[in-house]
Amino acid sequence: MPEEVLRVGLLGCGAIGQIAHVPAALRAKKTRLVALCDSDEVLLQKVADRANVERRYTEFAKMLSDKDLQAVILAVPDPLHVRLATQALEAGKHVLVEKPLGSASAECHDLIRLVDAKGLKLQVGCMKRHDPGVRFAHRHIQEKIGRILSFSATYRDSLFRRAMQETCLDPILSGSRPAGSGDDWKADRRRYNLITQGAHLFDMIYHLAGPITAVHAWETEHEDNYSWHGLLERADGGVGHFELTCKACGDW
Question: Quick one: which of 60, 96, 100 has its CA closest to 77?
Answer without folding.
Answer: 100
